[in-house]
Amino acid sequence: MGNLVSTDNIDTPLSKALPANLKLKALAIVALAVVAVATGLIYRANDQAELKRLVRQQELPIVKMIFPKRSNGTVNLILPGTLKAFYSASVYARVPGYLKQWNVDIGTLVKAGQLLATIDTPDLDQQLIQSEANLETALANERLTKLTSERWTNLLKTDSVSKQETDEKLGDHEAKKALVDAAKADVNRLRALETFKRITAPFDGVVTERNTDIGTLINAGHDAGNRLFTVDDIHQLRMYVNVPQSYAHQITAGMKVQFDVPSLPGQMFNAILTGNSRAISVASGTMLVELAVDNADRKLMPGAYGNVHFTLPDANNGVQIPATALVFRKEGLSVATLTTDNHVAFRGIQISHDLGSSVEVATGLSATERIIDSPPDSLLQGDQVRIAEGTNQ
Fold this sequence. Notes:
- With 393 residues, the protein is an alpha+beta fold.
- The chain is built from four helices and 22 strands.
- The strands form five sheets. The protein has a six-stranded antiparallel β-barrel with strand order 3-10-13-12-11-14. A four-stranded antiparallel sheet has the order 2-15-20-19, with no helix packed on it. A four-stranded antiparallel sheet has the order 7-6-4-9.
């Protein structure tokens, strides 16, 4: 074997080219690269997590949050009402014939007894002529029997005729007098009917309907014929309102209320409660009340509807929420409330008064609760939601 030569102390060209401080710099650069990569990975993971959170947040249903309103001690009840004329008369013909002439049209102001139309009644005219002739015949017969009965009465004094024959003549005269009375009654009846050829206004008012024209065949009576005119007295109107049973005992005669009508926006009108039906309708669960409305300026029209505003004392001191916040489910009536971390919690409630656009809640809700207005049907108990921007939180 040859002699082994040790290389531990022999300097190679590479070892001479790399000083010690350069090795440290290389190691530092490698360490910094590792830290930079690790930091980038961490930031990327955090960004992905935030992105997922934002996506989940955006997927949450958006809801409008509201707070219940505390009752102020009164209930502002708004109910629909219908205006009707103080008097309204449908004018029918009392005699058959043909319409000869009409003198007024819709919208005409008329006075009581004013001529509305005239009917041509040829059949009735002939009946009257015949009845008058029958009366003349009856009068002639009565005069003859009167003379005859007087003669027989004088002859009876001389015993020229029998008592029986005299009584027969007297009885015949009495019968003929009765026929005269019957003929007179028939003539008076037909003359009275003749006056109905003139259709007149029953009272002061306005013509709201005209359902006939010249030459139209007229049938007499309510059942056989159509109404010719409708006349309404509108110097004062009646308004009828159906009040829910829960307010029935708070409605009293003499109450002053206000109402508005869609045709006159921004104007309020006064009315006085004059009476009520004192009965609850089984079909609707409401009580019908009547209001008197002054209409001297004729601004209001019969048949129109209005929104009647009642101000009533509140005996329950509950809270009010919009009717749109109510949820109707098989478990009963409830509202969707929000927990502190914006999760849905359904709360059962009891309504004391239905105010139309809002309801008064007697139990199950406090004024500090956050509730969802118009909750979607898809909301379930415990669902997380997002509150719409601009909502008071």
